[in-house]
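It would be a great kindness if you could assist me with a short task in structural biology. Thank you for your consideration; the sequence and its tokens are set out here.
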Amino acid sequence: MSLLEALAEQEERLVFTSFTNEDALALGTLMVDAAREQGLPVVVSVRRGRQRLFHAALPGTSADNDGWIERKSRVVDRYGRSSFWVGESFRAQGKSFEADSYLDPREYSAHGGVFPVNIAGVGLVGTVGVSGLPQADDHAFVVAQVERFLTTAGQ
């Protein structure tokens, strides 16, 4: 299975049945707790649409990480796929997102770390993401925590 196929499989599998403000708070808290346990310097963001429902910046992060989260979230909003999938899809075609998407790189970044919040039967309703690690690690952390949340929340 290629990386692109694995990323697509994650998006197909990790789908919510609902997504409330309380879900966003619980997911964000779960992510912060996991990041603290692992000693990770990340910013955590959970949004529904353009509304930020949860945001936390752990030690070792800066305002630059907030900017990365915003740029990666815009990619997910625009393409409906994880920011890592979008970047990898350009690379798989021998292209560069920065040069070939025709989007302003000050506003959009197709680096791993932001994942779509999809509701079954509805589609994209928000994003969940982190910034602070290399892009593959950002993505892997988010996927692991979304999977953990969906399992423990009975979704």
In short: The first strand starts at residue 43 and ends at 48. The chain has one domain: 3-152. The chain has a mean pLDDT of 97.
